Amino acid sequence: MLPLTVPPSTSPPTFASPREAGAISALLRGEVARLIGPTLQPDLRRIGFLLLCTLAGAGLYGSAIGSWRGEGQMAYAAVKIPSILLLTAAGNAAANALMAPLLGVSIGFRQSMAAVLSGFAITSLVLAALSPVVWFQLWNLPSVDAGWTERGHAFYTIQLTQVLVIGFAGAVGNIRLYQLLCRLAPSPTAAMRVLLAWLGGNFLLGTQLTWIFRPYFGSHALPVEFLRDHPLQGNFFETFAYGALQTLGRH
Amino acid sequence: MNTSTPSTPPLTSSPDSNTGLSALVSRLLRHPATLMGEFPGTEPAIGLYLVTVVGALAYGIVVGSFSTGSLVWRVPLKLLGGLVASAAICTPSLYVFSVLAGATLHPRQLLRLVGGLLAVATLLLLSVAPVAWVFSESTTSAGFVGFLHWGFWLLAIAFGFRLLRTCSRALGATHLAPFIAWAIIFLLVVFQMATALRPWLGRSPTIVPGEKLFFLNHWGRVLDDSLSSGSGPRR
Asked: What pTM does this model have?
């Protein structure tokens, strides 16, 4: 989709404020250095811009996937999807800042936070752009009032679509994050090491937060609610392992 | 992945450019990249959408001519509405994918890009409308006529995607993959829109069906019906 090579170095910043038109374009093009400064030492306003992109983009996508169940699910998912991204960034902020210099990329806390947030912001913008498509797809599926079989098929179709869409958006965000790390790292290998370490941490925390905050589009067999009755009970990996064992007939 | 940087035509218009609709169509077909630059006179997006409206309605009349009853006048409206709605649903992603491909895009240029895509596609449809009409009048197989219309549509939209590629290069895009991804999304949306707005051929008491179906399920049903009945529904 996008090249893993680093784009040629950009000229010095030509616009100073993220409020100017083109800030979103610069972010999507991977010109994060242009947007938040070549040394990646963003002030609060620029961090705020990345937060706003994440909140708005992921929130829009959340409302689209919640539209299948309607009722409060649209609002719930619009709150929960950006919350997961931001809590993941916050929860791993210290670990990310610590790992980067250990793995050969000498950046500080604020720089690592800005880099991770820029990846999440790009992912959120891609999700926002695909929200109308997702909304249209869900609108065309049998509703929860349909027969058990039809709505069950719809549920699994939604699951599959979300995996594809979120996977695609996440890949775009991470490719841009890698390109940004390449600018800051002494070598592409060091940049890749840091990226993989950050991805590992974000995956671990992100999957558990995703588990806690369920449901998103809402199971066709369960009522609409903000959180399940026991949100902290169990975890993603246990459930995955249980499912795998069930599939293999060993449980 | 195409990472080469092709030579791009200048974005500025020649000073003696004619700004009428025929000149716009000529420019659209011959030098589409120039539509992305400064343009004398009326905003070209208006002309492009006007061409789309005329082309879609005219081709819709040909599609509707196969049917009887209210579908004759409903089909042109559904064709135009479906096309515009599909484009509207996919416009945000076109912007994001264009920027990911490296293009620098102003909202006005985005409108022209979408307008150009639709205008070229509907012009192509208009050009094959006589052929489609001949088949509509001489065939009773809805399956065959439906297949023919889909073939014409895919041909038309292929030229639309070609225009998108040309214009995006002029806007600085260097990667092809995001546009291929967007083209697939747009085609999927169009297929689903066509299913949501069915029927297009035959007879129907309602404007749109009550039952919601995924387009692959719908196509499977149509294929089953056609195979079991031998030649599909009759007029």
From this structure: 0.78
